[in-house]
Amino acid sequence: MAKHTGTPATAFLAAHGVKYTEHFYDYVEHGGTAVSSSSLGVPEHEVVKTLVMETDKGEPLVVLMHGDRKVSTKELARVAGAKRVFPCKPEDATRHSGYLVGGCSPFGTRKRMPVYLERTILDLPRILINGGRRGYLLGMAPSEITRVLSPVLVEVGREE
Q1: Considering only CA atoms, which of 142, 159, 157 is closest in space to residue 18?
Q2: What's the pLDDT score for residue 160?
């Protein structure tokens, strides 16, 4: 498999002095974090998914969640001060983020969007998070997310 580097996400991280490792796997359509964690031999809980969502007013936001958890959109809406929050259509997620679904990274997005980070991600020693392409994850300390994105810490994760 060809190595893919040089994404808007990696350019953003380099500009902010973030140290990361690159991890490649064979992307599977709709495979999600179960495929990437299995391919890379890491617990799915340590793979952080980047979800682009919208409020009922059409305002985009990013949620960073453990791979083995789902987002309580009701709780997220409450925290975000919205009536409702729901996942974007794939074309809207691409328009907001600049990335294809399955390759969305919270770093180097096309639009600046509020970022909500599941608080317990910060308890992990290391995470894998999308690097801006399908089949391409970056390993880093979770504290780097708080340093470069200043996310709102939330507790909206639920068991899958």
Answers
A1: 142
A2: 78
- Residue 139 vs residues 18, 24, 53, 82, 87: alpha-carbon distances, Å: 11, 11, 24, 32, 25
Beta-carbon contacts of residue 143 (< 8 Å; ≥ 6 apart)? 122
Tokens 């987002």: give the residue.
71
Position 33 pLDDT exceeds 80? yes
For the question of whether the overall pTM of this predicted structure is more than 0.90, the answer is yes
Confidence of residue 2 (pLDDT cuts 50, 70, 90): very low
> Which domains does the chain carry?
18-159 (3.90.960.10)
Give strand pairing partners of 153. 117
What are the beta bridge partners of residue 124?
none
